[in-house]
Write a structure and sequence with these properties.
Blueprint lengths: L26 H20 E9 L11 E4 L2 E11 L6 E8 L11 E5 L2 E3 L2 E3 L3 H4 L2 E5 L9 E5 L11 E8 L10 E4 L2 E12 L4 E9 L11 E5 L3 E5 L2 E5 L3 H6 L1 E5 L15 E6 L2 H8 L3 E8 L11 E4 L2 E8 L16 E8 H4 L8 H13 L2 E7 L7 E7 L10 E2 L2 E2 L7 H18 L2 H34 L1 H4 L3 H15 L6 H29 L3 H4 L15
Parallel strand pairs: 1-9, 2-8, 5-9, 10-18, 11-17, 14-18, 20-24
Antiparallel strand pairs: 1-4, 2-3, 3-4, 5-8, 6-7, 10-13, 11-12, 12-13, 14-17, 15-16, 19-22, 20-21, 21-22, 23-24, 25-26
Helix pairs in contact: 8-10
Length: 553
């Protein structure tokens, strides 16, 4: 804008001057705008990416308050929490500081830090007052990731920890839990850090981390088995109780070692090497004997107490085991008329011969057939009176019938004879049967008649004694010669021995009463044997528990 000033009337020349268009009042908003831009720049430069956390529940998680920490240093905060579309999990959003961006890798782990009581003690007590927070464990992978699943429990070891990770496979899930110890000769050598199930292979897998220096003990010959706290085993060999450590006693775990007599093999250095998880050491021992021959034994006695896994022994030495009891059930045609029940067994050649002496199954079979011809037979025997468990004993029987090679359902039959228990039971039953055939009722009747006759005889003798006493009291008897009187006195003394007050009479009468009482007590036993001949061996059947009767209203 230009302003023309007139100095005088004589001169018509104007002077031009510039007027300021921006007022000083605009300085304040400009400065505020610059400050806001600087703050936005600072926030943008410091704030990192937003991540998604998948959680099973949001207990204790608050938007804007729950922090994400690494080694007690805040690296982020939860910004949003909501349910998933199908309501089966929680989706939490969190803002991570820019400095912590490099921690977000594929193997980064998150878990909620809160008070926990575990095998290693109490942890997370500091969160009682401050509230739970989310702990982050930085990953070591190259590829970045923005979505993570929050763990239920803290990890056993970081991804970059020094040690060896192995995978243990088992047909059943739930045998181990995260945090269970991996034990080597009583030392805690590692921990179970992950549990899962493979749907395609239909088997569970357990990922275990072996700490240094115990990782040098993992070799190709190593075997892993489950420690179920207290291992109580009741079998034909007796009662066995064992546990690996106090921690395994409380929560179980897994142990590993190289079986005795087996080669250690090569050192395992590759991560996530796979091993089979066995139920116990006995299963490992059974798996080492891969060369065996299966036979079928036929028994005509009770198989109660014979279970799969029971030993097959030759003079106290185990040479095999029972595979299946019974091997097959009778057909509808045979039904209960099938008197012989089949049992499938296996004979391990390496248990019979030394391991350094290999023998083909066909040759081993011919060796056994030759021994069958010499009287080698199998029989059932009781391994433990406490548990009633049976096992199969193999030995030579001189009275065994001639061997005839037979087969059953495609398996050769291992000849067998009745066991000691069956023979004893048979002998006892024969004795009971003979005892039942005795004419006990007639005998008791005859004895009762004899007792009645004896009672009458004693009564007659008593009357005769009274007559003699009266005779001796007469005056005529007093005048008899002294010899006759002495003879009568002796006769009286003799008869006095049979009087009711005499010792002989009382003893004889007491003996007769005792005998009659014994026969009356013996009568229920005879009735029980008539009703159930085998009750002498097996006892009476247990009576049913009394059922309370509803009271009258």
């Amino acid at each position: 804008m230009e302003i023309v000033l007139m100095k005088n009337k004589q001169q018509a020349q104007a002077e031009v001057a510039k007027v300021k268009q921006i007022s000083t009042i605009w300085i304040v908003p400009i400065i505020a705008l610059l400050i806001a831009a600087w703050m936005i720049y600072q926030y943008a430069s410091k704030s990192g990416p937003e991540i998604t956390l998948i959680m099973s529940d949001a207990s204790g998680i608050e938007v804007g308050k729950t922090e994400i920490k690494s080694r007690s240093v805040k690296v982020g905060v939860v910004t949003d929490v909501k349910l998933s579309k199908n309501y089966d999990h929680i989706i939490a959003k969190a803002s991570i500081d820019n400095d912590a961006r490099r921690m977000l890798k594929e193997d980064t782990l998150f878990w909620v830090a809160k008070p926990r009581v575990g095998r290693e003690g109490i942890s997370g007590l500091e969160t009682i007052l401050s509230g739970p927070y989310i702990e982050i464990q930085a990953g070591a992978a190259e590829k970045e990731q923005r979505e993570f699943t929050v763990l239920e429990v803290p990890p056993v070891a970081p991804p970059d920890a020094k040690g060896l990770r192995v995978l243990l496979t088992h047909p059943q899930a739930g045998r181990l839990n995260v945090g269970d110890p991996v034990i080597y000769q009583g030392f805690t050598a590692g921990r179970v850090e992950k549990v899962g199930f493979d749907g395609q292979l239909q088997q569970a897998f357990y990922q275990a981390f072996i700490f240094q220096p115990y990782d040098k003990l993992i070799r190709t010959g190593s075997h892993f088995w489950i420690n179920s706290g207290v291992d109580l085993e009741l079998n034909s060999e007796g009662v066995k109780v064992r546990f690996a450590s106090l921690e395994s006693l409380l929560g179980g775990g897994v142990s590993f070692a190289v079986p005795d007599g087996e080669s250690d093999g090569e050192l395992i250095s590759e991560q996530f090497s796979q091993f089979t998880l066995f139920n116990d050491q006995q299963e490992i021992k059974e798996g080492l004997y891969s060369q065996h021959i299966e036979w079928v034994m036929l028994f005509d006695e009770s198989l109660r107490g014979l279970n799969p896994g029971a030993p097959v022994e030759f003079r106290g030495l185990r040479i095999g085991s029972v595979e299946k009891v019974p091997f097959s059930k009778p057909s509808i045609k045979d039904g209960f008329r099938a008197t012989r029940l089949p049992v499938l067994i296996r004979i391990d050649s390496h248990r019979v011969f030394a391991k350094d002496q290999s023998i083909a199954n066909a040759d081993f079979k011919e060796v056994l057939i030759e021994e069958f011809k010499r009287g080698l037979r199998g029989s059932l025997k009781t391994g433990s009176l406490l548990t009633g468990a049976l096992y199969i004993d193999i030995d030579y029987d001189k009275n065994a019938p001639a061997y005839q090679q037979q087969s059953f359902a495609g398996y050769d039959i291992f000849p067998s004879v009745q066991g000691e228990l069956a023979q004893v039971q048979k002998q006892v039953m024969e004795i009971i049967e003979k005892f039942n055939n005795l004419p006990l009722n007639d005998t008791i009747t005859s004895m009762n008649n004899a007792l009645q006759t004896l009672q009458k005889t004693l009564t007659s003798a008593d009357h005769a004694l009274l007559s003699v006493d009266k005779l001796l009291a007469q005056e005529q008897m007093q005048s008899l010669p002294a010899e006759l009187q002495a003879s009568l006195i002796k006769m009286q003394q003799t008869l006095d021995g049979f009087s009711p007050h005499a010792t002989v009479y009382q003893n004889l009468n007491a003996a007769l009463l005792e005998f009659e009482k014994m026969m009356s007590e013996f009568q229920p036993l005879l009735e029980q044997l008539n009703k159930k001949p085998n009750s002498l061996l097996f006892g009476k059947e247990p009576s049913a528990d009394p059922v309370p009767v509803k009271g009258d209203k």
